[in-house]
Amino acid sequence: MHEITLLVQLVKMVEREAKANSLANNIDSIVVQVGQLSEIVPKYLTDYYSNVVDGTLLSGSKLMIETIPGNGLCHHCEKVFRIVKHKGKCPICQADDWEMLSGQEFILKEIRIRED
Amino acid sequence: MSEFKIIEIKRSIFEDNDQDAEQLRQELKSSQTFLLNLMSSPGSGKTTTLMRTIEALHNEIKIGIMEADIDSAVDAVTIASTGTKVIQLHTGGMCHLDADMTRQGILEMGVEDVELAILENVGNLVCPAEFDTGAVKNAMILSVPEGDDKPLKYPLMFSICDVLLINKVDVLPYFDFDLEKCKEYVKKINSNIQIIPISSKTGEGMDKWFDWLREQVVNWNQF
């Protein structure tokens, strides 16, 4: 659904970086990081990528996706745990009083340029 | 095998919209307009709540409403019947509004004479939560028939709001909606959120909502 909107934003961001770094049309791939709890579906990013970048400076490039785990900090025992794996409950003390440290990101990590 | 040069960016894709939203908030500060982003599922009672709000506050505060829908002008026509300034934004299929679209609405409506602007966002608990519209505060409505477990199913929406109106409390006797449990679920995700149970049909509980709005408008113009 809005994965396409996000991809359009991503292309705009890369275009701005390309201008700032004087990059030519030799982008091999880009790496994005998607938070596990961001409600963004990585499969849809991959499925729509080539359509969205067609005709732009990212045409023909690959999209690589890294997942950022959803980590919670337990307010009870102050341990960090994986929110999804432990279904929102601290595995050490079983409390469900925690704050999210990571997991909602959508980050452009890097642009990889072919140097032939 | 080609060599690669790696250019590190490490910036959020939402950054652009975030900056745009911050810029819009500064512009709203200059025009002394408090903008509220009102979100919910379709049918929860946003428009009815706005009608009650206009009725209660229109003599004290200059109000402007921006209606956002995929299509039609149903809500804008309803609001216009009160004589309040209102415009209809058509998102053309987009499931949410971002700062740029909000600014277009602000420009079209004109806010020099508007103290309280309310953006009635697209009825959707998923996408609107992800995009900062440039509003000063976010509010959402959850209605009793939708169920008390929605905070568990749509955590992002509940986590980004400053106020939660639990609407249609007049029909609590007819639904298995545990009000205290719902409040508990919400507070776990967002301990600072203010929860106000209301009925936009009967008017029950709405004074607290009107007072909150009054306070926000005063604070926005003061600091």
Task: Write a short abstract of this structure.
With 116 residues, chain A is of the alpha+beta class. Chain A has helices at residues 3-20, 42-53, and strands at 27-35, 62-68, 71-74, 80-82, 98-102, 106-115.
Can you tell me about this structure?
The complex is a heterodimer of chains A (116) and B (223). Chain A is α+β, with helices and mostly antiparallel strands and 116 residues long. Chain A contains 2 helices and 6 strands; from the N terminus they run αβαβββββ. Chain A has helices spanning 3-20, 42-53; strands at residues 27-35, 62-68, 71-74, 80-82, 98-102, 106-115. Chain B has 223 residues and is α/β, with parallel strands linked by helices. Helices cover 37% and strands 23% of the residues of chain B. Chain B has a 7-stranded parallel beta sheet, sandwiched between helices. In chain B, strand 7 (163-167), helix 7 and strand 8 (194-197) form a beta-alpha-beta unit. The N and C termini of chain B lie far apart (60 Å). The mean pLDDT of chain B is 92. Strand 6 (106-115) of chain A pairs antiparallel with strand 1 (3-12) of chain B.
How is this fold's topology laid out?
The complex is a heterodimer of chains A (116) and B (223).
Chain A: H1 3-20, E1 27-35, H2 42-53, E2 62-68, E3 71-74, E4 80-82, E5 98-102, E6 106-115
Parallel strand pairs in A: 1-2
Antiparallel strand pairs in A: 1-6, 3-4, 3-5
Helix pairs in contact in A: 1-2
Chain B: E1 3-12, H1 15-30, E2 34-40, H2 46-57, E3 63-69, H3 74-80, E4 85-90, H4 99-109, E5 116-120, E6 137-143, H5 150-153, H6 155-159, E7 163-167, H7 179-189, E8 194-197, H8 206-222
Parallel strand pairs in B: 2-5, 2-6, 3-4, 3-5, 6-7, 7-8
